[in-house]
Each structure stands twice: as structure tokens, then as C-alpha cells.
Amino acid sequence: MAPPAQSQRSQSPSQPSGKSEVSDLKLQLRQLAGSRAPGVDDSKRELFKKVISYMTIGIDVSSLFGEMVMCSATSDIVLKKMCYLYVGNYAKVNPDLALLTINFLQRDCHDEDPMIRGLALRSLCSLRVANLVEYLVGPLGSGLKDSNSYVRTVAVVGVLKLYHISASTCVDADFPSTLKHLMLNDPDTQIVANCLSALEEIWSAEASTSEEAAREREALISKPFIYYLLNRIKEFSEWAQCLVLELVTKYVPSDSSEIFDIMNLLEDRLQHANGAVVLATVKVFLQLTLSMTDVHQQVYERIKAPLLTLVSSGSPEQSYAVLSHLHLLVMRAPYVFSSDYKHFYCQYNEPSYVKRLKLEMLTAVANESNTYEIVTELCEYAANVDIPIARESIRAVGKIALQQYDVNAIVDRLLQFLEMEKDYVTAEALVLVKDLLRKYPQWSHDCIAVVGNISSKNVQEPKAKAALIWMLGEYSQDMQDAPYILESLVENWDEEHSAEVRLHLLTAVMKCFFKRPPETQSALGAALAAGIGDFHQDVHDRALFYYRILRYNVSVAERVVNPPKQAVSVFADTQSSEIKDRIFDEFNSLSVLYQKSSYMFTDKEHRGPLEFADELGNLSIGEAAHNVISSQRVEENDKDLLLTTAEKEETRGSSNNGSVYAVPYDSSTSVFASQTQIESAISNPTTAGHSQHASFGIDDLLGLGMPAVPDVASPPQLKLNTKAALDPNAFQQKWRQLPVALSQELSLSPQAVASLTVPQALLRHMQSHSIHCIASGGQSPNFKFFFFAQKYEEPSNYLVECIINTTSAKAQVKIKADDQRTSQAFSSLFELALSKFGTP
Known about the structure:
The chain is mostly helical.
């Protein structure tokens, strides 16, 4: 019987015609199932390839299960592999169908070909169906005793799979003791490594409930077994060597001679071509000598050359991994690597992530003997075309200066940066000059002479502008134009979007007032008036505090705001020594690359929210928001969605409007005091404390008995653009840049919750109120929406993140705005629109 002709309606596997195509495949497979004609295996291959192609692109071909199993009765190993792949894919989701495969898989486990035996056993253990575990015990027992090493290797891994499916079945069959026997007696080192890996996992899990398992786990790090593995380590594969070396780090030698024996035995592993083996060996050396200070320092000298060789000879990814470990070592012993600083010079063709890490290394190894050469090299990078690297290099120069190495030359270099007339260079240099002046006040004369020539209009970055304003306030007595520069900044208060800059401006004007009162009085009055009316809670509170303490006593205010300052001796480290020690204990792991302990990124409660770019990229964009992301994705990205209402109330204090604390605030009353009243209080402090003219909408923040305020007229109603448009990339960029103007929780009506069974209904409803959705996602009960709106006839945007939980009928809303003065008015419009959702 000749193989049947292919169907004329057959399409390309990448363009299937649908159910008819699957039906044709089913018919053809059935015709070939019992055929023994010449060339039938070639025809089966073509059909199997089509089935696998359809399965790969997501077409359901589970209806072919029976035919695929029948066609697997062949000695062709390629057909066997494809059939096993198909069976493994559908067995877990169709346990009933998986039962059909047991007979032919068990039969293949006794095939003459060891490759087929191994593949069949692997597929049988990969079914992962709990009610089929009884069929695994026999084949696994035979596989562990098989004469072929490949079959034994597969069987060892299969025992671990069985343990995860049914731990009791695995233990009752006495597989752990069989693995132990293989580990100690099998001539194949790959089988030994697999047994070691499986037993570590099994005995670690069983140790909490079984004393025998606990003893066996301890036996793995006994002297006889460790020496047995070390004497065979050259026979192991690279992966297996890393496994053995990781086990050796847990072994505690009895005396120093044993330590030296182990190190001598592993000496040649430091010259291995594989970076993982070298790092694993380095970890062994470091851990063994922790209690031997002198030897530990010698170990640093010994491991230096192999690690530096790996940095320069491997791929950029390997270089980064090794550099991360070197950076950890440099932080513990910088003097050991100080003479090798040239190895950390950046190469022109290196990726940015490697350059950035090398800059950190140069900062760490700098000392009195090499500071000049390192700073000279870093200054060359300041003109780099890669702007982020140029910024990092300038910061590195500042960090070295703060370490008290050759400060004179470094200050001159930083002042030269201020004259380069590049915005980003000037911005970074200003921040560093501020820190230098905090530590070295004696350099104020030289620094201020240069800083005074910089126009505040040319400094746009918030941190740089805040640094400039700090210097204007701190050294206003030495800068002739300081009061007038601050006054111009206060006049442009509404155009300053950064709360950090506004906070610094308030403090700087206060300091300037105490040093040059006549020239600063007007600016201070205007600053306090603007600050008290500011939308940002921290700015508002600071301005109110300054105003009240001035009313109380100007001398007290000066002692609080502008006391004599001592030089800062040490700046706070971003990582505590405890965290660094914990990362060192996890040497040769991802902890070193992430620079945080493993629990920080493996325990779910410690994971931070993903960046908005990833979040927005996984949501539906624009009008085609029909496909929503899975509830699991929402759970991972938005851990705040999992909080109960009570928990959210408990955490509200730390997230109110971006403030560290929350102050009761009545939005229906005015918080503005007239500039005349504030200037009067400043110019006449003795009577200001008894003045009854100033009034605020906050209840006596400092217990000074402030009188209540009368109601004032509500602001004019905000009008939105009905045809607003915003590009998703522009939305994403603005969301990152703008601070949170308002954060609140709104309640939803039962009708609104019921209407959310179709999330698009909310999108259409909000659009009817000129509030447009740019991205949405989620599944019941958690939904997430990103909205935007634009002010009528003005290029001013409002951005909204709205997270709705239908179980609690609550909506968590965050609002960001270009014009933050009108954010409260927009919030009212948004709340009104949301309250009408679901109503007829």
C-alpha cells in the first residue's frame, strides 16, 4: 500500500486554514497509523512537522492525540521525539488523554535503543499528572539500573520530578537511597552531579520532618564525601564543577592545614576558561579563609589576576558579571586593587552598563597615589558623546573629592566644568560643588566666584537648580546679586514644576532675609504667600511653618533656619555594612549583580512595582483596548491592589501627595494669605504675633492659635478639550517626569461596579466627559486605567492612573498635571464624571 497523496487543500504550516486542516491531518494520520509501506516514515515526518507547527503557533490539535499515539509505533527516533514533544504539551491540560500514552511510553522504556529508552522515560516523567505516578515507579527503578549512562542520567532527574509530583511516592519507593548509591559508585560524573543536585533538593525539603533526611543532608558536607568529590573534580563538566564547589563552600575544615590542602587542590581551577568555575573557586577561597585574616588578604592578591583576565577576555556580559564581583571585593579591600586601576579605564567600544560599573570601580580604588591619574582620565570622559556616561564621570570626580584625595586639583577641575557651557555638565558640576562646600567650606570663596557668573535661567534640571538656590541662600552675603536672583525666581514660582526646587527656594529666601533683610523682605513675603498656597503638601507645610515661626519670634526663626553649620565629615552610605556582608555571603549569585540580598528580589512582598514603561507596554493602547492582561500580571505589577481597604487606610499617611506625612486639609477653604499681611508680619515681628489679619484653612499646625478663615469664592470652573489627543510615548514621558499632584480614594456605586463587567463602558463614559483612556488592563476584580485630558484652548495636560477594585467598590486615583494649580479643579471634574458612571 503506497502512502496516500497529500491533500490538495493543504496550506503552509504558518497559514493553516482552520478546522478543516486539522481534520485532514487526522484523516491522513489514521491512514498512516497501520501502514508498513516503504517511505511511510517520511510521510509521517511531514505530518508530524505540521502538527508540531500548528501546536507551536497556538492552534488546538489535541483532537489528534489518539492518531499521534498510534503513529508512534516506529523505530524512527525523530518521529519518537516529535511525538513525545506533542504528548508532553497536551498531557498536563488533558489528564484523561495522558492515560492513553502510558502503555506506549512504558513499552518504549524497554526498547533496545538506549536513546529511545531515555527519551521515553523523560517524557513519562514529564507528564506531571498526579494520578499517574504509580506508573512511574517501575520504569524509574529500571532506568536507575540501566546499563546505559544516558538512561541513568534521565532517570535521576526523573526521580526529582516524581518527588515534586508526589513526595510520599518517591520516598516510599526508596529512591533517595538508590540515588545515594549511584552518587558514590557510578563511574559517570554527570550522573554523580545529577544525583548530588537531586539529593540536595530532596533532603533539604524533607529535613524539617525527617531526622534521617537531616542526617543525610549533613553527610553531604562531611570530610570523606567532600574529598571524594574534590579528587574527581577535573572529570566533572563545568556545570557540575560549579555544583561541587558550591557544596564545598558549606564545608567547615577542622584545621588550617585542611584549608590549605583544599586550596592547593583547587588552585588550577582559578585558571579555568569558564568564568562560572573561576567565580565558584574564588568563593571557596574567600569563605574558607574568613577566619584567617592574613591568609584572607593573600587570597585577594591571588584571585586578582584571574578575575582581571576574565574581565578583559570575555564577552561584555561576562565582563559585567565579573566586574560586579570585583566591585564587591574592591569595597572590602580597595588597597589590593589600587595599583591595577588602569584595568578599569573605559574602552570606546564597551557598552554603557560596563562603562558605568568601571566608573564605580575607579571611584572605589582611588587613593593618594593614583588620584591625579584617575581624575585626569575621568575628566576626559566628561566630553563623551554618551551623555549618561559623561554625567557619571563628573559624579565620580566629585565622589573622589569627598574622599579627601587631592582636593585642590579636583576643585579646580570641577570649576572648569562649570565653564564648559554644556547644560548637563554644568548641572552635574553644580550638584557636586554644593556637596564640596558642605564638606570643605574653606573653598567657598573660589567656588562662589565662579557660581555667581552662572545665570539661573540657564539651569533647568531640578537637582542642579536646587543646588544653585542652596548656594544663593547659604552664601548670599558673598554674592552681591543673590537677593535679586532669588526674587526673580520667586516671581516665576508658578512656572517651577519641581517641589524640590520650591522647597529649596523657600529656605534660601529665609536665609538671605536673615543676612540681608532690606533687600529680601519683599521676596520673602512673596515666597511665603506662594508657598502657603502651593498645591504640594510639603511646600505648603514648610511655608506655613516659616510664616508662623517668623510671627512668633524672628530671632528664634533665625536659630532654626540659619544656625551656624559645621562641615559634613562623612556623607551617608547608600548601603549599610550589614547589607554588604549579606551580599558577600551570597557571592557568585544574582545578589552581587543586583547589589541587594536575594530575599529582596525572590520574596514577593519585597518586590517593587515595575517601571511604567513595562506596565504601559503590557496594557492595551488607545481605542483597541479589548485585550486585557491576566490577573496574575496585575497582581505582580500592582501589589497595592492586593491591600484591603483597612490596609490602604493604614498606609495612606506615607503616600499622601508624595509627602512623608499627611496633614488634614480642607479643600473648600482658602489657604492663601495676602502678600501684604505676610510682609507686615515680617517687617513688624513684635506685633505680628498678635495680628488677627492672617487666616489659614489648616487647624493650628503648631498650636499657635490661628484664627479661622472666612469662606472665599470658588475658583472658576475648568473646561476641557473635547478633541484632546496625546501620543502614548508622550504620555509615558510625562508620567515619569511629573510629580503626583493629588492622590485620593473614591467610592463606586453598585451600578458602576455592575457596569464594569464590560470595562469599555467606562472608557466610553469618561470620553463623553472629555476624559480619554490611553491604556487599560486587568481582570475582575482588579482593573487599571490610564486617562488623560487637556485644558480647553491651552496645551496643558492632566494624566490619571485609576485602579478599581470591584470587590471593595473603591477607586485609587493618582493625578499628575502640567499646570498643577488646577489639579484640584480637574480632580473634582474626574470625581463627578466617575460618580455618574452606571447611572441611566
